[in-house]
Amino acid sequence: MTKFDEATRAIRLDDTTYDVCLDNGYSIGGPLNGGYLLAVVLRAAVDESPHAHPVSTSAQFLRAATPGPATVRVERLKSGRTATMTRATLIQDGRPFIDTLVTTATLDGSAVPEWTGEPPVRMPDLGECVKLPDPKPESNINLNGQMELLFDPPTIGWLSGAPTGRPESRAYFRLAEEQDPDPFVLALAVDALPPVVFSAGSRGWAPTVELTWHLRALPAPGWLTLLGGGRLISDGWFDEEVEVWDSAGRLVAQSRQLARVGRG
Amino acid sequence: MTKFDEATRAIRLDDTTYDVCLDNGYSIGGPLNGGYLLAVVLRAAVDESPHAHPVSTSAQFLRAATPGPATVRVERLKSGRTATMTRATLIQDGRPFIDTLVTTATLDGSAVPEWTGEPPVRMPDLGECVKLPDPKPESNINLNGQMELLFDPPTIGWLSGAPTGRPESRAYFRLAEEQDPDPFVLALAVDALPPVVFSAGSRGWAPTVELTWHLRALPAPGWLTLLGGGRLISDGWFDEEVEVWDSAGRLVAQSRQLARVGRG
Question: Which domains, and CATH codes, for chain B?
Answer without folding.
Answer: 3-106+128-260 (2.40.160.210)
